[in-house]
Amino acid sequence: IEAAAGQHGLFFPPLPSSGDISTIGGMIANAASGMQTVKYGEIADWVLELEVVLADGSVITAGSKAVKTSSGYNLRDLFVGSEGTLGVVTRATLELAGRPEQIKGGRALFATLDDAAAAVSDAVRSGVDVAKIELLDAEAATMSNAYTGADLPDQPMVFLEFHADHGIDDEIAFCEAVLADHDPERFEIADEERMDDLWRARKDLAPAIDEYDPDRVFRHPGDVTVPISEYGTLIAYAKSLAGEYDLSIPCFGHAGDGNVHYAILVDPDDPDEAARAKEAHSRIIERAIEVGGTATGEHGIGQGKRGYLVAEHGEEAVEAMRAVKRALDPNDTLNPGKLFPETADGERVKGTLPDAE
Fold first, then answer.
1. Nearest 5°: CA angle at 224, between 210 and 342?
2. Would you say residue 348 lies in a domain?
3. What CATH number has the domain bearing residue 8?
4. What counts of helices (H) and strands (E) characterise the chain?
5. Which of 162, 245, 160, 230 is nearest to 202 (CA)?
6. What is the model's pTM?
7. Which of 38, 90, 149, 161 lies deepest, with the highest CB count within 10 Å?
8. Each residue of 239-295: pLDDT tens digit?
């Protein structure tokens, strides 16, 4: 998408960090988002119309090429984020945006993780018009350096990028003034080449964490998202659990929309450490839900987080989801075993089929 759109001065704003290896249908089915969500929204905000094949083989069109409609149920949004359980997307009409005339970015360094998280929260709530605002803790920075050869300081930091057609320097100055309340040790705007290096270091964090310690494996990739007012509290809680369980839990993420990514490094030959990691992971998710957040901001429920669906939405809401599934896919043909908690024991979400004539 980006290559084709770029030839016309356009781009696809919600492209996730994994965009280089993602499919369009996969991004839609997973309600994908990414670093630019804080400014441009999720993929659902950029989908106009879908062609979908249902479980019985029928083909429907959901949505409209018009930018707005109030006609009938919003079937388009029903399929966005359905994780392939309701239908297969075979065609999508997407909205694109004009590439901004001005793009600048940089970073702010902080003495403590609390300061960095509070700075992000204040920047968002103050209305700073930022296109990307990403947080890395000191552990994540160290791991990124080892993998990418970047020279990031081993301390908490925030990466920022600004998009505008005019007045970008005024917006940067406003952001710097807001961050100043949290005593950044340094705030710097980078040139284009340096900015590319910084974003590459951020995008490569997953493999960087995975390869950092040859004796440990990357387990329990975290994807919780919380209200921005709870962002710093949630990160502090995750780091406190790292100490309580004697684990390495680097934290990073799309800070501007409250998304906390984390990883737990585990010795695969140590059952006790594996059990501690699993418990810490569960507690982080439970805390995110308790403060009004979600178990998954962009990765989806899949199989691994089925057990949290009722805790997040309530039994009545999940039963409504089951009813939709039964109506559109009574035989549980499409992506069986995903999403619903009862499928953890092999039970399928089925309706009653009419007798064949």
1. 100
2. no
3. 3.30.465.10
4. 13, 12
5. 160
6. 0.92
7. 38
8. 999 999 999 999 999 999 999 999 999 999 999 999 999 999 999 999 999 999 999
Do residues 284 and 238 make contact, with C-beta atoms less than 8 angstroms apart? yes
**Rounded Cα–Cα distance for residues 306 and 267 (Å):** 25
Quote the CA–CA distance of 312 and 297 in Å, as a whole number: 12
Compute the residue count for the chain. Answer: 357
Q: Rounded to whole angstroms, how far apart are CA atoms 173 and 166?
A: 14
Number of structural domains in the chain: 2
Specify if 325 maps to a domain.
no
Task: Report d(CA 218, CA 352) in Å as an integer.
Answer: 42
Q: What angle is formed at CA 49 by the lines to CA 44 and CA 55, rounded to 5 degrees?
A: 95
Q: What is the CATH number of the domain that holds 165?
A: 3.30.70.2190
**Rounded Cα gap, residues 300 and 303, in angstroms:** 9
Q: In what order do the strands lie in the sheet with 157-164?
A: 186-190, 102-109, 157-164, 132-136, 251-253, 259-266, 217-225
Residues 36 and 116 in one domain: no
Output the pLDDT for position 350. Answer: 53
Q: 198 Cβ partners below 8 Å, 6+ apart?
A: 105, 107, 150, 159, 190
* DSSP string computed for 80-116: TTSTTSS-EEEEEEE--EEPPSEEEEEEEE-SSHHHH
**DSSP β-bridge partners for residue 225:** 259, 294
Q: Model confidence at 92, in pLDDT bands (50, 70, 90)?
A: very high
Q: Is the CB of residue 238 less than 8 Å from the CB of residue 221?
A: no
d(CA 102, CA 26) in angstroms, rounded, equals: 31
Spatial contact of 190 and 161, defined as CB atoms under 8 Å apart: no
pLDDT per residue as tens digits for the range 216-235: 999 999 999 999 999 999 99
pLDDT higher than threshold 80 for residue 347: no
- What are residue 136's DSSP bridge partners? 157, 252
Give the whole-angstrom CA distance, residue 152 versus residue 333: 48
